[in-house]
Structures are given as structure tokens and as C-alpha cells.
Amino acid sequence: MRRTFRRSAAVLATGLALAGGAAQAKCHVDQIAELPVTMSPNGPLVSARINGHDVQFVADSGAFYSLLSPGAAHDLGLKLEPAPFATLRGAGGETDVHLTTVKTFTLAGVNVSNVEFLVGGGEVGGVGLMGQNVLGLADTEYDLAGGAIRLMKPVDCGDRLLAYWAGPKPISTLRIEWPTPIAPHTFGEVWVNGVRMRAMFDTGAGATVLTVRAAARAGIRTDSADVKAAGWSYGIGHKMLRTWVAPIADLKVGDEEIHNTRVQVGDLELADADMLVGADFFLSHRVWVSKAQHRMVFTYNGGPVFNLAEPARMREIAGDAPARDAPTVATTEKDPTDAEGFSRRGAAFAARRAYDLALADFDQACKLAPGEPRYFYQRAMAHLGNRQPLLAMSDLDTVLKLKPGDVDALLVRAEFKALSRDEAGARADLAAAASGSATNADIRLKIAGAYGAIGAYEAAIPQLDLWIDSHRDDARQGEALNNRCWARAVLGRELDKALADCNAALGHMAKAPAVLDSRGLVRLRMGQWDKAIADYDTALAQRPDNAWSLYGRGVARQHKGLKAEGDADIAAALKLRPHLEDQIKRFGIDVPSTGAAATH
């Protein structure tokens, strides 16, 4: 690495150390810095300032160096220069990187001059990742459930266990590997179904995940009946990652054993680990990573360790009925004293789907700071998770009164209005969200998706155009290209461009049934019956319950003169989705009335 990289880390360490507490006699721990953490769908967020601008980073212990997204660097007016290496490898493969120097970086109230960041990858939440050049400056205490990450310095403590908060709680330990400048991460051995695995403890991974190869060593096959497909995920790199959820009979982390649980399995490219132990583990534990002792110590907070329960989708919400089977989660030792503290703790509860506890904290935050729209937005999302949509809508309305044009609130409210069959209201909110977003804003992908959900594909395509053009290095290119392919196919427009989009999407998401379904529709529109059937066959082999694929294959078969097979496919599709035929007719897809071959 370049000398300036090492200098930036050293300067930052010196600045934060000067802000730490004074030394005391005997074994004691000095707090160098406390970083307040707010949990979000993208991970634990830490606030900072770049050249006077408020920003948030995902605290990512799996990132060897802090990283800004290209969009964030552009918005902050930062100048890019060549990096010491041209590419960076992440879970999704390689991505191009550059280097930038931040004139004044403010963290934990300390200003540090001329701090370097890598720039690359896609949008990951906030402006980028805060990596080990910050989180690994000293011993690190991860108290995500309490809303904080602390950089700590033990003095004269020898080999004593440093879990000072534990009290009567059992303390688990795990030996970790020596960090190196090239690999400063936290690595340790864990056991999955009795098989030893090398694990990276990675707060930037939303959920704990095994690689497909490591899972096979533990007797877990992705084609087993008890392993369920979980869709696609993404990280640093250009590729989307196929994921599954698998049962685990026994998982041992240090002294702690977890029985009969479930974890994700992902088609990951990890060069130096078998699995990532993610933010779900850190939320369910309070963790100290000791560099001097080469040991991780942790205590259990209660509740699920690997929380894979899906949040309630708004389309599944039938009314104001609280969520059932909420996990039992311990509260922190001391209650917060201000609105921001309640907000952070509430976000941690919400991340673990302990919505009753989260709502109680958000109530306090809203009461203490009734003019802060962010707290009402957090409470709205917790109400949605708790299946209380009317209360959520009330909070979203409050957000938009306090902050007219808040894009996140407009987007969520539009989705709810769409589900309530208020298409005009949904379109108005989405138009307002689009007009209030920067040209290269990441949220345009979500706006496009919301337009698609109400069938407004003509409005979705311009949003996708803007996002695709400004996010060339983002792993979600496959998702966006597929959405644009589908929108054009449904509208029956620019079918050559739609086909190119689907082909490009398959380069990011190989054999993804959703993309094959989209391409099948394109080829159906183009009259390429055999090719459409081939795409639908491959899609249905993975997703046999996809009504669109069944219907599309049925139509193609009818055009081929295969009336019985076509009728059977269409009947199966309508059994799954009785109103699908109305959509097909509205989109003007040619369905033969007889089994005779027809032309498009």
C-alpha cells in the first residue's frame, strides 16, 4: 500500500486517542471513542462529517479499508485519483476503485485532516463503508443492541476477560487470528454440523451466510428438500448472489452452541473464509474484539441469534393486527436519556423485529423531539413491521408535514396507497419523490419498482434509465436491467432493446428465473415461440409456481398448435392467479382463441 494510506490511519488513530479518557491505576479500560450506531436495512449506520457535510457510513468490520460510493464522492465534490490497486474484491467479485482525499473528516467530534478513502462499488447505504482502518484502530466493542461501537484501550489487564458489562451473564470466548495490514479483519474458527469453518466476523453482512462450497462440506446441499431458495443478494462486486436458507443442526461459536437454527447459504466468492458471521450475530450479542489478546469475548442478549424471519410485506397486511411471535429480547442496562438514544435503541429492536420494544422507544423519541421527522419515519416503519398500517400512514403524514418532499416517506406512502387501490394518490407521491431526487440518486431504482407495482411501466422506464446510466458498477445492474426489460416487454415497445437488457441482466444474474421469465415475454412478443418456450421451461424448472411463466408458455404453445399443452399451462396459471388474464388482455398480449398456429 502507499505510504499515505498508512499515514491516514495513523493520523486518525492519533486524533481519536487524544479524545480518549485519562489513564488510571491498575487494570482499566480507556474509551478512545464512542460511535453512535443506528441500525438500518443496510446495516449499522455511523454518523460522520466530510468537509462539513453530514454523512452516514455502514460500519463494516469486513471491509479492510473505508470506502465511498462513486455517487457519494460525486455529490460531495471529491476529486478522484488512481488507487494503489485498480480493483477491489468483494463477495460479488471485483469492482474498479479509485482514491480520494477528504480535507476534513470528522468522527466522534474529532476533526482529522487529509484522510484518504477508496472510491468504488455500488450504493451500500449511507455514503459508503467504514472499514478496519477505523474500526480496527484499537480494541473494538460492538454493542449494536445498545446503539454504539466503541474503540477501547485496555491498560495493564493482561489476559483478563474484558466483558466489563457482563455481570452475572455467561461470557463466551473465541480465539481469533493475528490481524495483518493486508487482512486486518476478525477471523476465527467456528463449527457447523461438526465441521470446522474459517469465519470472518462481518458487521457489514446483514445476515450470517455460508458459502455453497462450505455448506456442502457440512452436509448441506442447495437442492435438498429442506433448503429453500431465498432470492438474490448483493455486495461489493458486479454480480448478484443467489441465496438459500438452510437448517443447521449445530453451530458452535467459541463456547456458545446454537442448535436447530437456520442460516443463509450464498453463492459467494470468498477467497479467505468459509462463512461471514453477520450483523444478526452482533445484534444478538455484545462483543469485544481484543487485538492484544487475540480473542473475542461476547455475551448473549437474548432472542434469535440468526434472525431470518421476513418482515411483514405491506401486501400481506390485512389490518391493524400486531405481529405475532415477537422475539424475546433483553433491553440494555440503562435507558437512554435523550431522543437520539431512544431512536438508536429502537432501531436495534426493530432490526431484530422486537417491534413492541421498538415502538415504545420510538414513542419516547417522538415525544422528546416532536419536530424531528426522522423519528416519526422510524416509528412508521416499525408500525408496518408490526402489521399496523393505519398507524404507519399517520406517522408518514406527520413526516411529510414536518418535511414536505421527504423522498423516503413519499415512496413508502405511495406503495401503501397502491395496495389500497389509490392509484392516483400513489402516482402523485411517486411523481413528487422523483422530482425531489437528484439525477443519479440511488432511490430512483425503488421509485421505478413502485411504478412497476402499479403497472405504470411508462413512468418506470425513465427512472430506470437514470439509475442504470449512473450506477454502472453497481451489483444491482442485473435487477435494474431486468426491470427495464420487463417494462418494455409488457408495453410491447422497443423489443430489441428489451432483449438486449434481458441478455445483459443474465450476465449479472445467471439463469435467474425472473430474468428468463422477462425474456420469455419479449420473445413471445417477437413471435419467437420456440425460444420463448425454452426460456419459460428453464424458469419453471426453478420456479414452478410462477403464474406469468406458465401463462406465457401456454400462449407460446398455443401459437405452436399445441392446444392441449397450452390450455393446461394457462389453466394452471389462472389457478395460481385468477385475475392474471385481465392483465394479459390489458397489455395486449396475443392469445389465440384456437389451437391453430398464428402469426404475431
- Total beta strand runs: 20
Low-confidence stretches: 1-7, 18-24, 309-328, 594-600
The profile of the biggest β sheet is:
6 strands, mixed, barrel
Principal-axes shape call? globular
Write the layout of secondary structure elements.
Elements lengths: L2 H16 L9 E13 L2 E8 L2 E7 L7 E2 L1 H6 L5 E10 L2 E15 L2 E11 L7 E3 L1 H4 L3 E5 L4 E8 L16 E4 L11 E6 L2 E7 L7 E3 H6 L10 E6 L7 E13 L2 E11 L8 E3 L1 H5 L1 E6 L4 E6 L38 H13 L3 H14 L4 H13 L3 H14 L4 H13 L3 H13 L8 H10 L3 H14 L6 H15 L3 H14 L4 H13 L3 H14 L4 H13 L3 H14 L3 H7 L14
Parallel strand pairs: 3-8, 4-7, 13-18, 14-17
Antiparallel strand pairs: 1-2, 1-10, 2-3, 2-6, 4-8, 5-6, 6-7, 9-10, 9-19, 11-20, 12-13, 12-16, 14-18, 15-16, 16-17, 19-20
Helix pairs in contact: 6-7, 6-8, 7-8, 8-9, 9-10, 10-11, 10-12, 11-12, 12-13, 13-14, 14-15, 14-16, 15-16, 16-17, 16-18, 17-18, 18-19
